[in-house]
Specification:
CATH architecture of chain B: 2-Layer Sandwich
Structural class of chain A: alpha+beta
Strand content of chain A: 35-45%
Strand content of chain B: 5-15%
Strand order of the largest sheet of chain B: 1-4-2-3
Number of domains of chain B: 1
Shape of chain B: globular
Distance between the termini of chain A: 61 Å
CATH superfamily of the largest domain in chain A: TolB, C-terminal domain
CATH class of chain B: Alpha Beta
CATH superfamily of chain B: OmpA-like domain
Distance between the termini of chain B: 18 Å
Number of helices of chain B: 4
Radius of gyration of chain A: 24 Å
Oligomer: heterodimer
Largest sheet of chain B: 4 strands, mixed
Radius of gyration of chain B: 19 Å
Largest interface: A-B, 41 and 22 residues
Order of helices and strands of chain B: HHEHEHEE
Helix content of chain A: 10-25%
Number of strands of chain B: 4
CATH topology of chain B: 60s Ribosomal Protein L30, Chain: A
Number of domains of chain A: 2
Number of helices of chain A: 4
Number of strands of chain A: 29
Strand order of the largest sheet of chain A: 2-1-3-4-5
Chain lengths: ~425, ~160
């Protein structure tokens, strides 16, 4: 009897366990009282005001994640500088917080600020992580994003995606005379900038790993061709010389190479070329359209799309083009794959008839999952956390917009941008 | 290119010479709308070739029997007008993803161009480009544009 009961309990526990993993895990409550300052007097008040701005930014950052739920920050929750490293755990435990961020902003003699950031497990009363950032005043936002990232990584184990940038195509004008410009912004929408003048059609901006350069497609020559744009100084050059149509660029994870597609006659194949020049190496030779190649994070494999079977399907091959293997096999069309930064998943656009949606699949072809329910969702790009994607949704009025969606199955959220937008690309975490 | 420049020069020269003193004045021309010679060629090409737009099945760059009939007529017209250069503009399917649409438009344009060349159209007389799904135009189709817009018009020399 006793044995039977314990078996029953074990089975029940197994069921509960699987139910728990299948469901959305409850978000971890995090307290973010306003950053303090060791400075005194007017300077101290100034630093406390900046600290409060940074605190609100962190609350917004972490509130957008599926895994963390910030308590509403209160400007009156002042704590002294020594309490940064000795927080009042029982106070936060009583308010229901499981985790806590403390920190400070301090002036330096060179005019820059030091931002200290500390992450705690409130239940255990233990420090999880700490980091300091020295920034010019204009970069205080970035320090706050880095602090959000430190907390996110300490609690979830995944890299934070708050100090990252998103490049996309800004679209204005009527449908018949669309003006398209490459634009870039911080992932929270700040520092929005246009990088091309809109005098020619531009498509598919793809950021280099640290967002210093953008590979994109321009119709400037009449034929679509990949160009490389320096985000800092605006300088541009074609990726490869010649008149051939080149498209679908994507940087390697180390930034040393660019994958692209080249159309020769009626045949599109995948090539790779060094970012410092050199002769392009051809990786696929099939008839039909091979395109949208994306490296695995270790650079050893490439996911791509091919219609060699009659419909667009996803394939994986070695970085030298060998061992091409199909990984999707349904009657739907699969396209625009992008390998996740942690290597575990490949995001794609799923298409059946006129309906397009965003999905993910493991590199071995298992665990296919459709994440969105829109009618025209496409062009997914991973966040540095590998837990979220940005994508383009054409809304019912025919206008394209940018959306974010988490892997946890929650509803996609529309991003705020100054005009219509398409072809988003999300950078890795910046230095 | 040189021909085009010469033609433009000729057009300028005609009205100028008409105003020269001592020349016999012609009676005023009847008020018919003057048709641009390029527009006239365009209309003739569209009429003789059974339409400038050639359609494909969704997702396919294979020429249909109907497409081949149209392209045969286009090739015949181009044979009669060896001085006219045309451009084939390929369009993808509107529901396709961006890069595949771009490639499929290019593939369709290339297939149509290859077929014209197979029928004897010189390569220099026909170019091919793709709009993917970037330009409003006939979906899943190629359109033969005459003359290439944006460049200097190429029209036949006076016979």
């Amino acid at each position: 009897m006793k044995a039977a009961r314990s078996i029953f309990l074990a089975v029940a526990a197994a069921f509960l366990g699987s139910a728990a993993t299948a469901q959305q895990p409850a978000a971890t409550v995090i307290a973010i009282p306003p950053l303090t300052s060791p400075d005194s007097g007017t300077k101290g008040n100034e630093m406390l005001a900046l600290g409060w701005q940074a605190t609100q930014l962190m609350e917004t950052d972490l509130g957008q994640t599926a895994e963390l739920m910030p308590l509403k920050s209160d400007r009156n929750d002042y704590y002294s500088y020594p309490e940064v490293t000795a927080p009042n755990f029982s106070k936060w435990r009583e308010r229901g917080a499981k985790t806590l961020i403390t920190g400070f902003v301090r002036t330096r003699s060179d005019g820059r600020y030091t931002v200290g950031c500390y992450v705690y497990d409130v239940d255990k009363g233990r420090e999880l992580a700490r980091e300091g950032y020295v920034v010019i005043p204009a970069d205080l936002r970035r320090a706050a994003h880095k602090c959000s990232g430190l907390a996110y990584k300490a609690i979830t184990g995944a890299p934070g995606m708050f100090d990252t940038r998103i490049a996309y195509v800004a679209e204005t004008g009527s449908r018949a005379a669309r003006v398209k410009r490459i634009a870039i912004m911080d992932s929270d929408g700040y520092n929005h900038k246009y990088l091309t003048p809109g005098d020619t059609i531009v498509l598919t901006p793809r950021l280099s790993p640290k967002a210093a350069r953008i590979a994109y497609v321009s119709f400037q020559s009449g034929t679509p061709q990949v160009r490389i744009l320096d985000v800092g100084n605006g300088e541009q050059r074609p990726l490869v010389p010649g008149d051939a149509m080149t498209f679908a660029p994507r940087y390697s994870p180390d930034g040393s190479k660019v994958l692209f597609s080249m159309m020769l006659g009626a045949n599109s194949d995948i090539y790779v070329v060094g970012t410092n020049g050199g002769y392009p190496q051809r990786l696929t030779v099939s008839t039909g359209i091979d395109t949208d190649a994306s490296f695995s994070p270790d650079g050893s494999k490439i996911a791509f799309e091919s219609d060699r079977s009659g419909t667009q399907q996803l394939y994986v091959m070695n970085a030298d083009g060998s061992q091409q293997r199909r990984i999707t096999f349904t009657t739907a069309a699969y396209s625009a794959p992008e390998w996740s930064p942690d290597g575990s998943l490949i995001a794609f656009t799923w298409r059946m008839g006129d309906t397009r949606r965003i999905g993910v699949i493991a590199p071995d072809g298992s665990g296919e999952k459709i994440l969105t329910g829109g009618s025209a969702d496409e062009e997914p790009s991973w966040a540095a956390s590998s837990r979220e994607l940005v994508f383009q949704r054409t809304e019912a009025n025919g206008r394209p917009a940018l959306y974010r969606v988490s892997l946890d199955g929650s509803a996609p959220r529309k991003m705020t941008i100054p005009q219509d937008g398409s072809d988003p690309d999300w950078s890795g975490t910046m230095d | 290119m040189r021909k085009a420049i010469l033609l433009v020069a000729a057009l300028i020269a005609v009205p100028a010479s008409a105003q020269l003193p001592g020349l016999r004045r012609r009676a005023p021309a009847p008020q018919v709308p003057v048709q641009d010679p390029v527009d006239a060629l365009r209309a003739d090409f569209a009429a003789q070739s059974g339409g400038t737009t050639v359609y494909f099945a969704v997702g396919s760059a294979q020429l249909t029997p109907q497409a081949k009939v149209q392209l045969q007529a286009q090739a015949a017209w181009l044979r009669q007008h060896p001085d006219v250069a045309v451009r084939i503009e390929g369009h993808g399917d509107p529901a396709d993803t961006r890069d595949h649409a771009l490639a499929l438009g290019a593939e369709r344009a290339a297939e149509a161009r290859n077929f014209l060349m197979l029928l004897g159209t010189p390569a220099a007389q026909v170019s091919a480009i793709t709009w993917g799904k970037e330009r409003p135009g006939p979906p899943s189709a190629v359109t033969t544009i005459l003359p290439p817009s944006g460049g200097a018009p190429v029209v036949p020399a006076a016979r």
